[in-house]
Amino acid sequence: MTKTFKYSLDKSSKKFKCPRCYKKTLVRFIDLDKNFIEEKFGRCDREVSCGYFLKPEEDNNAFVEFVPQIELPTSFIASAHVINTLKGYEHNSFTNWLIAKFDSKTIEQLILKYRFGVDNSGPYTKDWTVFWQHDINGKVRSGKIIKYDDTGHRDKDWSATWYHKKGNINGPFFPDFNLKQCLFGEHLLKTNTKPIAIVESEKTALIASLFIEKYLWLACGGKQELRAEKLGPVLNRSVTLFPDLGAYDDWKVKAQEFGFNVSDQIEKIASDEEKGKGLDIADYLLR
């Protein structure tokens, strides 16, 4: 006879914040009525780099903590791959849109500063923008590849991907790659003493840097990506967070946690119609 367990891991797509690594990667346990039990019981999807797994015992609700596996070393992208993307900008919708908004000389300097590229290898991501994550030591963690349309907006028909996940007919380029992200623009910290501004998207950091020069603009990569493991290089610097519209309350908590400042400027000037549209400081600066 098949044994029925009192608890099981939830099979839906819902994920919660892991108590160990603080990423939204925790699959929680549910009871026979499909109700979630205590938040501490669950398994983190990051089995190698985190390994958190608290399992409720069937009889007494105690739990067992499994020892996490040894974390693998950070993987890096060889410079030859990066160099191959530093061309073909004339075919890139995002770069052409930037040039139309500003001018070619300004954007040339922006490219040299932030080192973003264009995927020239394809086939599916050919001419997409590559936002390389150069860490403070100049090593490349990986590159986020995003497709933009001619209006400078992300093409919603295509999901962003990572350079190390690209493949060819023989399989992925980097089959055992261990991604450990850093801030976009982090390489600039070594030689720049300006106060730091952190935004969500790489595009926002680029545009804001052209308007407000008193800050060094960096990007964390998303609302949920403002994480401790990315912030080490800026903890002893003057940092102001510029959250997207609607994310102020969440980032205010983060600001208090890390001793940062946080701007509510766009929250104050946004109209009722604009709220809920996910606008950011770049949208207002471009106006």
From TrEMBL:
Superkingdom of the organism of origin: Bacteria
One Pfam assignment: Zn_ribbon_16
Domain DUF6371: 92-245
Limits of the Zinc beta-ribbon finger putative domain: 5-59
Signal peptide (from-to): none
NCBIfam families: PG0870_Nterm (NF040506)
Protein name (database record): Toprim-like
